Amino acid sequence: MKPAFLLFCLWGGVPEKNSMMMLSSINNCIYFRDYLTKQSVSMKDNDGKISVKKYECICKLINVNKDVRLW
Question: pTM for this one?
Answer without folding.
Answer: 0.75
